Amino acid sequence: MRKFRRQLTELLSGFRRVSEKSGDCVLMGQGAHVPRSGRRVVACLAVCLSLAASFCSAQDAKADRVPKIVVAIPLAIETGVPIKLTLRGHLLDQVTEVKVGAADLKAEIVSKGKAAVPPNYDAKRVGETQAELKFTLPAETPSGRLSLIAVNAEGASVPYEIIVAKADELIQEKEPNDGFKTAQLISMSKTVVGTIHDQRNVDVFEIKGEAGQKLTISVVAQQVGSLMDPFLTLYDGGGQVVVGVDDNDGRDAKLEVTLAKSGLYYITVQDANDAGGPHFAYLLKVTQ
Questions:
Q1: What is the span of the domain harbouring residue 195?
Q2: The 3-state secondary structure of the chain, one letter per residue
Q3: Share of the chain above pLDDT 90, in %
Q4: Do both 252 and 268 map to the same domain?
Q5: Residue 250: its pLDDT value, please?
Q6: What is the band of 77 on the pLDDT scale with cuts at 50, 70, 90?
Q7: Do 160 and 86 have their domain in common?
Q8: 128 and 179 in one domain?
């Protein structure tokens, strides 16, 4: 909307730069000649553009008064069970209701208030308020994405989409899993729902692979609003680094590898800046 308003303002300035030359009106912004009789048309267009620019300004001002959801934690939720969800964003301490999905299910707002902004993070980007919710999705809700809309007295937020899956499609990260000896065994093709809970925290997972097997390992975080900047590393069973990646999928991490030998492998997930906290959430998935 702001970009559109700037374009309108520039175009309006062009229409206003009208001068007379040899009995004609010259539109200086475009270099096009308009007959004198067309002055009224130009004036009318200028008025219309001015009204449109005013409308855009009003819309921008309204957008600053309605809530915005930056991220919802956890990043993926199950159907048919009670869900506790934390929204982080702007003006969420003013929300009066949160709508869930096309069925317009309304979540219970358990609490709302200010959210701490981690050092060196921009509050405008990561949000400074939060709201805690409770609700239960019907068991028949299909897997996919579900919209969340936060509402206050000024209006409704842009929908935030959260991933919905069946219980057997998700693996919940379990602590302690911060070393090879305590690595959490995971299955391929399932999504791990995890969080880097503290600064310098590392989550370690264990998989079984076969020689020649081609794997894709991906971590999704910033794509869905998480504060985490993921760093992903694959180790062999002896603890030697096979490959590590950072920021090769936007600000997220993804690697493709062909396993050299059969046996155990370890996957580590951490924040590239050694940051952590409840909003440093991620989704990890291994596919072949």
A1: 169-287
A2: CHHHHHHHHHHHHHHHCEEEECCEEEECCCCEEEEHHHHHHHHHHHHHHHHHHHHHHHHHHHHCCCCEEEEEECCEEECCCEEEEEEEEECHHHCCEEEECCCCEECEEEEEEECCCCCCCCHHHHCCEEEEEEEECCCCCCCEEEEEEEEECCEECCCEEEEEECHHHEEECCCCCCCHHHCEECCCCCEEEEECCCCCCEEEEEEEECCCCEEEEEEECHHHCCCCCEEEEEEECCCCEEEEEECCECCEEEEEEECCCCEEEEEEEEECCCCCCCCCEEEEEEEC
A3: 75
A4: yes
A5: 85
A6: very high
A7: yes
A8: no
The answer, yes or no, to whether residue 167 has pLDDT greater than 80, is yes
In the block, residue with structure tokens 């503290």: 198
> Which CATH number does the domain housing residue 258 bear?
2.60.120.380
Per residue in 47-70, pLDDT tens? 544 555 444 444 445 579 999 999
Alpha carbon of 203 to those of 23, 163, 176, 180, 268: distances in Å? 77, 21, 8, 10, 6
Are 17 and 79 contained in the same domain? no
Domain boundary among 44, 63, 82: 63
The more confident residue out of 31 and 118 is 118
Q: How would residue 24 be classed by pLDDT, with cut points 50, 70 and 90? A: very low
Specify whether 202 is located in the same domain as 242.
yes
For the chain, percent of residues with pLDDT exceeding 70: 77
Question: Is the same domain home to 173 and 77?
Answer: no
Say if residue 246 is in the same domain as residue 182.
Answer: yes
Q: Are residues 183 and 233 in the same domain?
A: yes
Tell me which of 143, 165, 187 is where a domain ends: 165
Count how many domains the chain has: 3
In this prediction, residue 187 carries a pLDDT of 95
